[in-house]
Amino acid sequence: MVNPNTQKGFTETPPNYDRKPELEAFDDTKTGVKGLVDAGLTRVPRIFIREIADGQTLSISNGSEIPVIDFDVERDLIIDQVREACESGGFFQVVNHGVPVELMGEMIDGVRRFNEDCDEERRRYYTRETTKKVVFNSNFDLFRSPAANWRDTIVCIMAPHALSPQELPVALRDVIVEYSKQVMKLGVMLFELLSEALGLKPNHLNEIGCSEGLAVLGHYYPACPEPELTMGNPKHSDNDFLTVLLQDNIGGLQVLRQNQWVDVPPVHGALVVNIGDLLQLISNDRFKSSEHRVLANRVGPRISVASFFTTHLQPSTRIFGPIEELLSEENPPLYRETTVKEFTRYYHTKGLDGTSALTHFKL
Predict the structure, then answer these.
(1) Which of 37, 71, 91, 333 could serve as a FRET partner for 137 with CA atoms 20 to 30 Å apart?
(2) Where are the stretches annotated Disordered (predicted)?
(3) Would you say residue 20 lies in a domain?
């Protein structure tokens, strides 16, 4: 077990420090960061400390640049707003989206219950096998990243093949099934809007499989005694087509825009939508997958639910490349073709190292 109170910070780390034994000791507890907090730590363990936090010296904006799009207005106006948001920064919030606000609150509560009610339940699902349909762990790239992040995650693969109730954690069982159904409906609608925003037929992105798969990730960020030393989630972009994020009211999500970190403030009843790397690839850079991060916080736990539209666990040979209808002599393809499985494998192997996976697929 890692002794959290013996870690004094990065500046005291000896040059021959081998962090692997401490990583293994932390992983072997199978209770994640929450387990460390429950053990009464007063300092951040050395394995979580970053030499320089991502973008630490960059200025921070209050988030007024992140558009909030009302889906209860004329469709043409929604399409125009979605197009502008996706071409300029890839992040926007939506209201009147059809997912019941009460259900959103119940989903947050379900993630809280899973993390707080029973250590044995968490240990039961704790694994580093990425092929399992339900996975709980702390940091999917724990042994590859420069520093561990102050975050535990439960991942449930909800589509294209539905899980039986018995496969799901009791604390989440009922709510995640209903929440996933509602998010899938929203996803189909979002991909229709995105298709039209690209000048394609409304059903184009749905027909090529962008909305087939859904992975629901419940993130739990415990209160941190020294948040300036670590991150909840470092700078990264998402390895999917589209992400729909439900966040609680604590805040901490930031997106990188024009060399400035911009807050994505919690808005009551809103869901955050952001473009993933795969949609940037098939749109040939028309839509942008922006880098973002989550700060650690003395207040907590912060809870969020990220719904990833991706089919990386589906054994499919479907090829994705820049959409032919978007290409021309003046706009040649910028990326080579790939499968979702190949892209995801590269992303996971690379880990959250601060670089974009898209670079690997550039022509």
Answers:
(1) 91
(2) 1-25
(3) no
Question: Structural domain of residue 142, as residue ranges?
Answer: 59-361
Reference 288, options 199, 197, 214; nearest CA is 197
Rounded to the nearest 10°, the torsion over CA 71, 72, 77, 79 is 30
Q: What are the residue ranges in the chain where pLDDT is below 70?
A: 1-15, 52-64, 313-315
Residue 16 within a domain: no
> Is the preceding peptide bond at 15 cis, omega within 30 degrees of 0?
no
**Which pLDDT score, from 0 to 100, does residue 11 have?**
39
> Cα 215 from chain centroid?
10
Cis peptide upstream of residue 322 (ω within 30 degrees of 0): no
CB-based contact 245:179 (threshold 8 Å): no
CATH number at residue 231: 2.60.120.330
**Cα 16 from Cα 313, distance rounded (Å):** 39
Residue 90, domain member (yes or no): yes
Neighbours of 238 (CB within 10 A): 26
Q: Which of 154, 115, 148 is nearest to 296 (CA)?
A: 148
User: Is-contact 363 336, C-beta < 8 A?
Assistant: yes
What distances in angstroms separate CA 95 from CA 1, 73, 134, one per listed residue? 44, 11, 29
C-alpha pair distances (Å), 51 with each of 47, 56, 256, 265, 341: 11, 10, 20, 27, 33
CA distance 246 to 273: 9
Q: How many domains does the chain have?
A: 1
Quick check: 67 and 92 in contact, CB under 8 A?
Answer: yes
Local structure of residue 136 (DSSP, 8 states): E
Indicate the residue type of 328.
Answer: S
Q: Is residue 36 part of a domain?
A: no
What are 335-341's contacts with CB under 8 Å, separation 24+? 335/281, 335/284, 335/361, 335/362, 335/363, 336/361, 336/362, 336/363, 338/281, 340/213, 340/278, 340/310, 340/311, 340/312, 340/314, 340/316, 341/312, 341/314, 341/315, 341/316
Query: Whole-model pTM?
Result: 0.92
Each residue of 272-294: pLDDT tens digit?
Answer: 999 999 999 999 999 999 999 99
Handedness of CA 147, 136, 351, 242 (dihedral sign): negative
